[in-house]
């Protein structure tokens, strides 16, 4: 099976099985989504969703969070991974939004990655989810599944290399959903340690499954 056929079957499967894929993080505004994504680094969405209601009640906007101290925010985020650095990032990010962007989350990649706590993956999540732009955020799930399914080769050794390959081969209008197809399938079916191949609908074109059988 060539690359074009594999991508076509990947898209066809998820268009039918998961047509409305979206983030599992809870948020009401782009600012709240940005906070949630920063908090979700090396932490589960489930854990983040447990703490953000109280956090957003206390600091619903960038203007409100910009007035806070790191210690103020830390009280709400203690149960996530790396709470001290994340609390600091949230406060500094909010202050920069107020000072440079009128309190609004920018929809520009370069402006996003200039914010404290925002790297390439987080910026791409924001562009894709909040602004429906053609951006592919590559987290551990996306990286793992792209290799397992055979959407990318072993030569794609970095998240950026995987991102470029996926963007090149997936139609632009599908990329925001394809990001979530890979994340959700990796989260619930093709898990890191114990992939559930018997419950997977991709086995007829999955490179990992084909190699596993031989």
SSE-based structural type: mainly alpha
Largest sheet: number of strands, sense, barrel closure: none
Radius of gyration: 18 Å
Which range best describes the helical content: under 10%, 10-25%, 25-40%, 40-55%, 55-70% or over 70%?
55-70%
| SSE pattern, N- to C-terminal | HHHHHHHHHHHH
Number of helices: 12
Mean pLDDT: 95
| Low-confidence blocks of residues | none
Strand content: under 5%
Described by the principal axes of the CA atoms, the overall outline is elongated
Number of strands: 0
Question: Roughly how many Å apart are the termini?
Answer: 16 Å
Features:
214 residues; mainly alpha; 12 helices; elongated
Protein model, in words:
It is a single chain. The protein is mainly α and 214 residues long. It is built from twelve helices and no strands. It has helices at residues 3-17, 30-39, 45-58, 62-66, 70-77, 83-101, 109-113, 120-130, 140-149, 159-169, 175-188, 207-213. The model has no long low-confidence stretch (mean pLDDT 95).
Can you give me a brief rundown of this structure?
Helix content is 60%, strand content 0%.
Topology:
Layout: H1 3-17, H2 30-39, H3 45-58, H4 62-66, H5 70-77, H6 83-101, H7 109-113, H8 120-130, H9 140-149, H10 159-169, H11 175-188, H12 207-213
Helix pairs in contact: 2-8, 5-6, 9-11
